[in-house]
Amino acid sequence: MNKLIKISLVTSMALSSAYATEATSVKDMFSNGETSGQIRLGYYSMNPEANGANTEYTTAIGGQLKFETASFNGVSLATALYTSHSISALSGKQEDGKFSDFLTSSEKHYTELGEAYINYAMNGFNIRVGKQLIDTPLADSDDIAITPNTFEAVVASYSFSDLGLTLLGANVQRMQGVDAGYENVTLNSWMDTGDGSTNMIAGLYANDTIEAGIWYYDIGKLTKAIYADATTTLSLNQDTEITIGIQYLQENEEENSNVEGSIAGIMAEASFSGLTAMVAYDSVSTDNGDTINQGFGGGSSYTNMQNTTAGSLHEGGFGDGDSFVASLGYDFSGVNLFTAYGDFEADAIGAGAKGHLTEIDAGISYDFNDGEADISLVYVDVQDKEDSTEDFNEIKLFANYNF
């Protein structure tokens, strides 16, 4: 679900205003505001390998348009419209079972007020209230379709810049986006995060070589979770870096939800003159009938790939398991070539069958004019080693223009 080569390790949140200077009046606040956005064209196809199964495909165009005011007495406002519309001539027919709603919805379109917030920043303190982008281990934007997930939330943070320490607290009530299933697109309703809301607190630390973070989540009537990770980066010379990371997620069920278990992982990455190699391992532990919940978004496990995640096989039907991913990427002149292989296994519960999936991802991307535009093509092949009728492959093609 996440980007192919998972390099980031401690997930944080950037909440400060985009403006370094203050407006002198409310009028200047709006006249000195900034408009930004993105136009995205996407193609997606999913081809099941079972005999007689339909290939589903769609082409869509959309993106986002955002306006953010300048800051006046520490206060700024922002709003962003998100939209996506399928191109019927380049999409499968719904009546033939060949249309995919991955890029839009079952109604072939959506339009949402994806962001609408008020932000207050003063010295090291920041608070943001309203619909906003959030990127944390168990709630994140997961920008894998036409528009990202966004959340209706209150998020406050305080940074001790001299110490490299940030403290954060949030209440997250609802979300919209690909991981919410474009809930009830006609009514533009959003999906609740848990029964009521999700509360989280975090402490993040960073210096020149180490990043570390610990997060606590209370996902209403579902689970209480603690997530922690830490990484260190060593520069061997001007062209060579090695990064090592560890992570741990522990979940404890609430009100017999059966969401309980743990994920422990380690990764190592080396980069040299545009070449990047990464290996990662996650161990998953669940009791009989329990499920690992990776939150609202793509999740943060080191072994997450385009389709399969560390928790994919741990949804009540399987017990403990392991996942391993190795990836290789090469950057040159704006071109990025990448490939990855993942192996995911889970023990059988009782007399059931065990789970075993493999995934291969391969693709190419290109950035134009230092990120003004980009294009990417990814091929995904998933093989179910226990049931070949579940095998499938995907193609994802995206072109973006940023302004």
What does the model show?
This protein has 403 residues and is mainly β. The chain contains one helix and 19 strands. The chain has one helix at 26-31; strands at residues 34-48, 56-68, 75-86, 109-122, 125-132, 150-160, 165-176, 191-192, 198-206, 210-219, 223-237, 240-253, 261-272, 275-285, 318-332, 335-348, 355-368, 373-384, 392-402. Strand 12 and strand 13 form a beta hairpin. It has an 18-stranded antiparallel beta barrel.
Overall outline:
globular
Topology, number of strands: 19
Given the helix and strand composition, which structural class is it?
Answer: mainly beta
Total number of helices: 1
Strand portion: over 45%
Order of helices and strands: HEEEEEEEEEEEEEEEEEEE
Rg over CA atoms: 22 Å
Task: Give the low-pLDDT segments.
Answer: 2-10
